[in-house]
Amino acid sequence: MAESNELCYLTIAEAADLIRDGELSPVELTRAFLERIDRLDPTLNAYITILHDGALADARRAEAELLAGEYRGPLHGIPIALKDLYDTAGIRTTASSRVMKDRVPTEDATTTAKLKAAGAVLLGKLAMHEFALGGPDPTCGFPLAKNPWNLDHMPGGSSSGSGTAVAAGLAMGTLGSCTGGSIRGPAAHCGIAGIKATYGRVSRYGVVPLSWSLDHCGPLTWTVEDSALMLQAIAGFDPRDPTTSRAPVPDYMDSMVDDVEGMIIGVPRDYFFPEDGAINADTKALAEAALDTLEDLGATLVDVSIPSLEFAGAAQQTIMLSEAYAYHRTNLVNSPEDFGEMVRGRFRLGGLVSGGDYVQAQRVRNVIKREFAEVLKTVDVIATPTMSTPPASFATASSRNTSSLRSLTGPYNLTGMPGISVPCGLTPDGLPVGFQIGGKPFDEPTVFQVAYAYQQSVRLYERRPPELD
Asked: Within a domain: residue 334?
């Protein structure tokens, strides 16, 4: 068991080097993960579908290619898993809803296909909040993923299983999706890294949508460099997704530089560090300490103001719910009983949004984008807490208290800017807190560099959640 844990606690970068040099077998690595999943997932509920036979077939194929000298890159032979809204040909994709409980796609999502082309091993499909909205809802008909740091607490959402699987050593990397914070939120609450790249950087073709103009796809991993490796594999133009950009994709590993000397870090304190109690005190203190670390590393902190952020939450919710209602309207009318209670109620709210409301929300969105762009002329990145509170307990979870919290991640979905969450410590109760770094559109390299320098300084990746057995 100890040896199995050691393999499952390797980072992608570490395992990739061992696989490339012939010191680690993809089959041995995959078996270790499948054994650990079988042992721990009945408690953690990270997976909806576990692909025992398929994963071993992928691993044997990778091993044969490696023995033949056909090395595909750092994801070759690496066990990963996908949030269960990424289409997988011949494999059930449910979006954690009875509406799609029997849905089996006939082709892969573009991101799925790119990971396969990179030689990754697919362990399975991951738990999530129904249709990527709301909170954990036992009425949706699917198990609820738990936080490996404390099983009584939520792992964040909506990419709940994606965060749980990485934090618990049940996958080396995962893909989540993000409409208002569903990559960075689970990353923060599970003590791992997660990046939402610029809107248009990663294809969403073959991914069940929540909100077309806000949705993003991206990785959750144990370290910043692992997120860079996964983003490298999935980024780029896709003719089947007209929102993707043709801008060249840089080599993100060039950004793994432990240096922020001379960088200017913008801190919008009025919204992200308020004095009115809107942010949990432990969260705020740990984020302040993270800012101090960046300053100690040679960065300059500058207070900045984005006046219209106070309207971001209302605009984001208006756009998201109206677009979600448009997608789900037919099923809401014809088979409302197939939806969980929480999501059904919130989707129906989207039907009450008028055309005028939607247009006004988009106008607010454009104002906020202009204000961020103006600030980013004077700073390299913006740094804030990721979430306003540590992970909540299941006992206190409800759609009302989930949606009423101040969103510190949503503004980056409105603007389409890149944002990453990295761990910045544990509360006195042992719950993880995340630190968010955002940057200019398509400037993921700078975002990665600041996140990596911070990570290497505090080295929080050296501490894993407590073992369940």
From this structure: yes
Question: In the chain, what are the helix, strand and coil shares in percent, each to the nearest 5?
Answer: 45, 15, 40
CA distance 348 to 430: 37
Separation between Cα atoms, residue 411 and residue 395, nearest integer Å: 28
In this structure, what token pair is assigned to residue 373?
Answer: 């762009």
| Residue whose entry in the numeric block shows the structure tokens 């269960």 | 84
41, 43, 44, 45: CA torsion to nearest 10: 70
**At a CB cut-off of 8 Å and minimum separation 6, what does 92 contact?**
49, 102, 103, 104, 125
Q: Which residues of 119-142 are buried (b: 16+ CB within 10 A; e: fewer)?
A: bbbbbbbbbbbbbbbbbbbeebbb
**291 phi and psi angles, rounded to 5 deg:** -60, -40
Tens place of pLDDT per residue across the chain (469 aa): 446 689 999 999 999 999 999 999 999 999 999 999 999 999 999 999 999 999 999 999 999 999 999 999 999 999 999 999 999 999 999 999 999 999 999 999 999 999 999 999 999 999 999 999 978 999 999 999 999 999 999 999 999 999 999 999 999 999 999 999 999 999 999 999 999 999 999 999 999 999 999 999 999 999 999 999 999 999 999 999 999 999 999 999 999 999 999 999 999 999 999 988 899 999 999 999 999 999 999 999 999 999 999 999 999 999 999 999 999 999 999 999 999 999 999 999 999 999 999 999 999 999 999 999 999 999 999 999 999 999 999 998 765 555 568 899 999 999 999 999 999 999 999 999 999 999 999 999 999 999 999 999 999 999 999 999 7
Tokens matching residue 202: 């990663």
Rounded Cα distance, 283 and 351, in Å = 35
In a domain, 469, yes or no: no
Copy the structure tokens of residue 178. Answer: 């993000």
Please give the structure tokens belonging to residue 232.
């490298």
- Catalytic residue numbers read 83, 158, 182
What CATH code is carried by the domain that includes residue 457? 3.90.1300.10
Per the confidence metrics, is the pTM higher than 0.85?
A: yes
SS3 of residue 193 by DSSP: strand
Q: Which domain holds residue 194?
A: 2-462
- Angle subtended by helix axes 224-234 and 110-117, to nearest 10: 110
Alpha helices in 214-354 (DSSP H): 224-234, 269-272, 281-296, 312-334, 341-350
> Does a structural domain hold residue 467?
no
DSSP 466: P
107: tokens are: 């082709």
* Number of domains into which the chain is organized: 1
Six-digit token pair at 277?
A: 């109690």
> Measuring CA to CA, which residue among 61, 66, 58 is closest to residue 23?
66
For residue 417, tell me if it sits in a domain.
yes
